[in-house]
Design a protein that fits this description.
Elements lengths: L1 E6 L5 E9 L5 E8 L12 E4 L7 E2 L14 H5 L1 E5 L5 E6 L3 E3 L4 H6 L8 H6 L4 E3 L3 E7 L7 E6 L5 E4 L4 E2 L5 E8 L6 E7 L7 E7 L5 E7 L2 E7 L13 E7 L10 E6 L3 E5 L5 E7 L5 E7 L11 E4 L11 H4 L10 E7 L5 E7 L7 E7 L10
Length: 382
């Protein structure tokens, strides 16, 4: 395995990469970048490009790269699924993310049941602003290769927050599936799916996973058969394992209806699911027990994972980032599990490129990639 740093800056918190593989061997990564430990996507959004299969990375403002497609917030550029329609139209579906309002609108936010973020990190980064949770979905399309864009938004009522996750998929028949997770004012939440089967002309929001409002990833394992991995939480009766487990759900009708969740047979989250060219399913995930880092598993069809061969990509995480305030770093366990969110792609030569963020012993949170091969880097079970 070979590790390469994509973006590391002293005094900056660079995290949550989104990886795109483009025609001609080009790769692009966008990420959240901030002087503080920003989990809301309120900082900057640098984009880097590689033309040598991920060996080197350089900043890029090329408007044709999907991470550079327009968005009203950095979070909107992160929380979306991008693609090119059969006729050449560029399209992205996502969520708008957290929004900055005038403080005078607090009563409006509370009346609508939206969550107001009360956090010293947010206050220091955005003084005098009222930060409210995301509650809108968006779709942008360009019919002229980015020269102009059309934009639509939808407000989703009834939830304290509505947030997308950039782990959606486009099915073989052209259907777009974008995963959304929510929280309610009473503390509950649901997994939703924003779905279009007519090249983005119409969209429908489906309730898929009741009671689990957290990040989830999708992959089509066979025509119309979709596997979803959902980050689970304390509501499922495992408060001690809240940072460990994922749940599996299945759809056999192209994402219209879903099975009840079952617990995945391995520990780790959040997950990314990728169908390899030979039909196998790759699951990349953050591992938040010592030794913390990034791992992966292979399945022949997504139903039975090869637990005897767990790929340990990184095991040198677990350091609290210096971007967190000192008083928070002093709290037991705070920030030590700040690692993961991997995204993988299969290169032309059969190698896997996995992008993620990690905070090693030096305390600088940064974005990196690992090159590895699923049939050569055969680890023993850990």
């Amino acid at each position: 395995m070979k590790h390469t740093i994509v973006l590391r800056e002293e005094g900056r918190y660079n995290a949550f990469p989104v990886l795109h593989q483009l025609a001609g061997g080009r790769l692009a990564i966008g990420c959240i970048s901030s002087p503080v430990g920003d989990h809301l996507g309120l900082g900057d959004w640098p984009v880097l490009e590689s033309t040598d299969q991920g060996e080197t990375w350089t900043p890029s403002d090329d408007p044709g790269l999907p991470p550079n497609w327009p968005g009203s917030t950095p979070r909107e550029r992160y929380d979306r699924l991008c693609g090119v329609l059969p006729g050449g139209t560029w399209m992205a579906v996502g969520s708008v993310g957290y929004e900055c309002w005038d403080p005078g609108r607090r009563a409006e936010a509370e009346a609508r049941g939206l969550r107001v973020v009360e956090d010293e990190i947010v206050s220091s980064q955005l003084p005098g602003k009222l930060v409210v949770s995301g509650h809108r979905l968006s779709v942008i399309r360009s019919r002229d290769r980015g020269a102009s864009w059309e934009r639509r938004t939808w407000t989703v009522p009834g939830y304290a927050s509505v947030i997308g996750f950039p782990r959606g998929t486009i099915l073989e028949d052209g259907t777009w599936l974008f995963p959304v997770y929510t929280s309610r004012p009473d503390g509950g939440g649901d997994g939703l799916l924003f779905r279009s089967s007519d090249d983005g002309e119409t969209w429908r929001l489906h309730l898929c996973v009741h009671g689990v409002g957290s990040e989830w990833a999708l992959v089509e394992t066979a025509p119309g058969v979709v596997l979803g991995h959902v980050r689970s939480g304390y509501r499922w009766g495992h408060p001690a394992d809240d940072r460990i487990h994922a749940l599996e759900v299945w759809s056999e009708d192209g994402g219209r209806t879903w099975t009840q969740p079952v617990e995945a047979p391995f520990q780790g989250y959040p997950n990314h699911l990728l169908k390899l060219r030979d039909g196998r399913i790759l699951c990349s995930f953050g591992y938040r027990r010592k030794p913390m880092g990034v791992r992966a598993l292979i399945s022949e069809a997504g139903a039975a994972w090869d637990l005897e061969h767990e790929y340990v990509l990184r095991d040198d995480g677990g350091t609290a980032s210096t971007a967190w305030p000192e008083e928070k770093r002093a709290q037991p366990g705070f920030g030590s599990s700040d690692v993961g969110y991997p995204v993988s792609t299969e290169l032309d030569d059969g190698r896997i490129l996995t992008a993620y963020y990690i905070t090693p012993a030096d305390g600088t949170t940064h974005v990196a990639v690992t090159h590895w091969h699923p049939d050569e880097d055969r680890p023993v079970h850990v």
